[in-house]
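Researcher: Here's a chain I'd like modeled. Treat it as a single chain, no partners, no ligands.
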Amino acid sequence: MSAATSPDIAPAPAATGEKRFAVAQLDEIPPTPCPCGQARRAFKEPWNTLASVHLTDISVDSKLHYHKKMTEIYVVLEGEGYLEADGERIPLKPMTSIMIRPGCVHRAVGNLRIINVPMPPFDPADEFEV
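Model: Modeled as a single isolated chain. Structure tokens:
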């Protein structure tokens, strides 16, 4: 069976012109304060139940926090610092990636720019400062 006829591939968009993709220019999204610094959050629309993507600038005075439902994946783009996760200190440098599971008390510290992929998409009601 070819990819064009596979039952696992969604059908073509409806005649309304609905698209099956979304595009975000992360550096053009206004920043929002978060426990780790400033986040530019994309793909947070109500129809999206999979994941959001954040371009986050970490501050040196970030706050410990955790999430009850959300898993996060950090990818360090620039800078150096560390992640404090459940009392452990993990060094961070460009191209380091770390998965943070629900319940893990964490914060990133340093002058860092990261991509954060929260799954499910970020929900402010699921952010608890310690």
